[in-house]
Amino acid sequence: MMDTYLKVLTQIKGKLENDLVIGGNLEQYELVSVFFGGGTPSTMHPLAMEKIISHGLEMFGKSREDGVEISMEANPTSIEYGKLKDFHRAGINRVSIGVQSFDSECLKSLGREHSIEDALNAIDIARNTFGEDSISIDLMFGLAQHKNNPSIWKNSLAKALSLNLSHLSLYQLTIEKGTKFHRLFNVEKDLPNEEESSHLYEFTIEECKKHGLEMYEVSNFAKPGKECKHNIMYWKSIHDFIGVGPGAHGRLTNHNTRERFSTIQVMRPEDWIEQVDNQLNHIHKPSLLFGDIKEEKLTEEQQIEELFMMGLRMPKEGVSESSLRAINPELSFEKLLNANMIKQLENHGYIKLIKEENDKRIVATMSGISVLDILIANLLSK
Questions:
Q1: Which helix (H) or strand (E) holds 135?
Q2: Tens digits of per-residue pLDDT, 336-353?
Q3: Radical SAM core domain: which residues (predicted)?
Q4: What is the rounded CA–CA span in Å between residue 311 and residue 333?
Q5: Can you say whether residue 150 is alpha, beta or left, with left for phi > 0 and alpha for psi between -120 and 50 degrees?
Q6: What band does 67 get if pLDDT is binned at 50, 70 and 90?
Q7: Which of 14, 141, 208, 320 meets the CB 3.0–4.6 Å disulfide criterion with 213?
Q8: Rounded Cα–Cα distance for residues 115 and 35 (Å)
Q9: What angle (nearest 5°) sits at the alpha carbon of residue 215, between those of residues 210 and 220?
């Protein structure tokens, strides 16, 4: 599979250099982060990862000393001291560990194979390898066990906070129709309702704040200056990111035409390899990236909706008027939004309109974040 990754990266470099995608030149891009996601990249051989990292950095004229954040997701069961050292030598400088819970029953109901001891051992190994400022752990609240006994979540959170890490990702369990969990649980009866989940979330925000972890995105908390660059760039929405590999999503902008494209790569690894090989053999067929199963030109309306949907998840950043102008130079809050609606939402404490010297920003308050979908629908209604 490594060879396939390298083929796709080479193809991307050629397209970017020849203005076939971005309508400009490769030098206008700055590489900020590389993220190995999907839950199990730690099962990859470190040497394979090193080749991919080196190739990616070289594309943008970067070296390991240039401060590019290079993150990897890992499950506790896949973390071994020797292998993690090898990943560090390969170029990984940040690791996110999928702990999910510090309660045995919760881990079992989530189908996780690791134990609490495995998770704590993995965190210790990662801390010794990367340092505590370069580790994050994922935890999940809103589980069935939390409905009747909220203290289970509170204890898990307390354990995580006692580790004195610089970053935590704390997600509410969401269950999609057609999934294994949807068949296992009656969402309305088995899981915390909206009010119960809201209490858990508010408690989470307050406890994190007490321990010096500020919420910089709905599900992400960090000490000042320790935010994940990948998360920030992703949620800001206006930045490009190249998605490579099975199931990867991406966004690419043609800076001449202001056209923005959404890309989705083939999901199953074996199908993805086959798709790349087929496209290599039929190179005359137009394709933004080898391995794509879907390429969609986003309308201006879709880009604006995405900008608000993503940006308002960040209570400090919000959505700036300048980011609107990146979509269309003629756009402004005044032209796009209903002034009366903005005033109503401000008066009810859902948003704040912040005026700066050369810009304006709309940020969601805690009340607004708790009803974000409704807030965005009202904000964009004419």
A1: strand 135-141
A2: 999 999 999 999 999 999
A3: 1-214
A4: 14
A5: alpha
A6: very high
A7: 208
A8: 26
A9: 115
Q: Determine how β-strand 319-320 pairs with β-strand 351-355.
A: unpaired
Q: Whole-angstrom Cα distance, residue 264 to residue 28? A: 24
pTM of the entire predicted model: 0.91
Could you tell me the domains of the chain? 30-227 (3.20.20.70), 312-379 (1.10.10)
Radius of gyration of the chain (CA): 22
Check pLDDT > 90 for residue 282: no
Q: Which long-range contacts (CB under 8 A, 24 or more apart) does 302-309 make?
A: 303/260, 303/327, 304/331, 304/336, 304/380, 305/376, 305/380, 306/237, 307/237, 307/238, 308/376, 308/379, 308/380, 309/237, 309/372, 309/376
pLDDT tens across 240-274, in order?
899 999 999 999 887 777 788 899 999 999 999 99
Q: Report which of 72, 228, 101, 222 is spatially closest to residue 171, judged by C-alpha positions.
A: 101
Q: Integer distance in angstroms from the first to the last C-alpha of the chain?
A: 49
**Residue in this structure with the two tokens 């010297």, named with its chain if needed:** 357
Category of 131 on φ-ψ map: left (φ > 0), alpha (ψ -120 to 50) or beta? left
The one-letter code for the residue type at 183 is R
d(CA 42, CA 47): 12
Identify the pLDDT of residue 201: 95
- Tokens, residue 361: 């920003």
